[in-house]
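Extended Data, panel c. Modelled sequence:
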Amino acid sequence: KAEIVKEYQVGEGDTGSPEVQVALLTANIEQLQGHFKSHKHDHHSRRGL
């Protein structure tokens, strides 16, 4: 998470800019997609997505 923030931050300590937020959400979605391929019946996590 810190690596993503560091890569996309606009200024020092920037965690709220749209660029950072979109990058964090994208990384989370990609991680969950891999999880769902392995755990097809995990409907609780899918609902949280």
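The two ends are 18 Å apart (CA to CA). This feature is highlighted in the accompanying rendering.
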